[in-house]
Every structure is written in C-alpha cells, then in structure tokens.
C-alpha cells in the first residue's frame, strides 16, 4: 500500500467522473457561518455538485468563505435567491427531486431514501435547521442516523454526508 502519485490520482478521479451521470445540486437555506459555507463549497466541488443555490445564506464572496473553500468556488456555479420557493422552482424545473436533510418528524434515514437519481439536497441554518417553508416544500426528508451522545451534526458535515450518500447510491446502481 502506498499513496498515489499525482498522475495516478488524476487517473483515479477521471475514472470516477466517467462512472458519474447523476446530477446533484445543493440548496442552502440560511446557512450563515462563512466557514461552514466554505467547507460546503469545497466538498461540493470535490464531489461534482453541479450548482449551489443560496437562500438567505452568506455570500461566497466573503473573505472567510474563500479562505475555507481554498479556491474551489471557481468549480461551482452558484445563484442567490430571495426565497426558498424560487430556489425550489429552479431545481424542480431542472428535473431534480428536492430532498431535505433534517432531523424532523417523519424523516427517514438517508440510506433508506432513493437518492440514486438527480437530486437537490437541502440543508439549513446552523442552529434552527431547515425553515418551515423549506421543510414543507421538500419532496422527501432524510436524516443522518447518529449513535453518539451528541444530538446533531455541523451543517457542513451533514451536507458532506448527504452528498456522499447520494453518490454512493448512484454508483451502486451503476455497477
């Protein structure tokens, strides 16, 4: 076992991109912390998220966002919206299913949802989670099961896990 050299790493990334046909967008519902936004941008760029939809969230142009995103914003187009309904209309018009990521009554574990198709994953505010408006407009809502003594995850971590779970399901179907 050894680390991949840069050429091998590029080759591996290219192989995974060829296996990836699923479209994933992220909708951020009032994510306020610039470091969380920067972390979400970096993960989204690494996982091939196609578009970032921002509703009442910090601007990607903020210096602290840029510091955390480490230059990856150039790989991720984004749009800011005045309200969640407009953002959801945009992603639905593009043919994506809207899936909220929230610890909510009636939500299912993410791994039980059918995330292998084209999806827009929605994450919310650091303390309050998804707004009532966003939660009520989602096609499905899923959560990340947790077994530890802490009751919730950082929004950037939850977004990362949700994007990975959607990719994992799509790759499993393509095998």
Structure annotation, total helices:
6
CATH class identity = Alpha Beta
Strand content: 15-25%
Mind telling me the CATH superfamily name?
A: SPOUT methyltransferase, trefoil knot domain
Low-confidence stretches: none
Radius of gyration, whole Å:
16 Å
Could you say what the CATH topology is called? Alpha/beta knot
Sum up the overall morphology in one term. Answer: globular
CATH architecture: 3-Layer(aba) Sandwich
User: How many separate domains?
Assistant: 1
**In which range does the helix fraction lie?**
25-40%
Would you mind describing this structure in some detail?
It is globular, with a radius of gyration of 16 Å. It contains six helices and seven strands. The model has no long low-confidence stretch (mean pLDDT 95). It starts with 5 loop residues before the first helix and ends with a helix. The protein is 39% helix and 18% strand. The chain has helices at residues 6-18, 34-46, 63-69, 84-93, 132-137, 155-174, and strands at residues 24-29, 51-55, 78-81, 97-101, 108-109, 119-124, 140-143. The chain has 175 residues and is α/β, with parallel strands linked by helices. Strands 3-2-1-6-4-7-5 form a seven-stranded parallel beta sheet, sandwiched between helices. The protein has one domain (32-174): Alpha/beta knot.
């Amino acid at each position: 076992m050894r680390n991949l050299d840069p050429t091998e790493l590029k080759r591996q990334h290219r192989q995974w991109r060829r296996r990836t046909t699923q479209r994933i967008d992220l909708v951020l519902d009032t994510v306020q912390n610039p470091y969380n936004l920067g972390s979400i941008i970096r993960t989204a760029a690494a996982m091939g998220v196609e578009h970032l939809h921002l509703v009442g969230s910090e601007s990607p142009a903020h210096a602290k966002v840029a510091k955390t995103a480490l230059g990856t914003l150039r790989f991720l187009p984004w749009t800011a919206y005045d309200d969640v309904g407009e953002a959801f209309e945009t992603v639905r018009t593009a043919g994506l299913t809207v899936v909220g990521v929230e610890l909510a009554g009636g939500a299912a574990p993410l791994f039980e949802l059918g995330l292998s198709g084209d999806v827009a994953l929605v994450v919310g505010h650091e303390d309050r989670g998804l707004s009532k408006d966003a939660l009520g407009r989602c096609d499905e809502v899923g959560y990340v099961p947790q077994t530890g003594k802490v009751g919730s995850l950082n929004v950037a971590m939850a977004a990362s896990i949700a994007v990975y779970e959607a990719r994992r399901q799509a790759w499993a179907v393509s095998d």
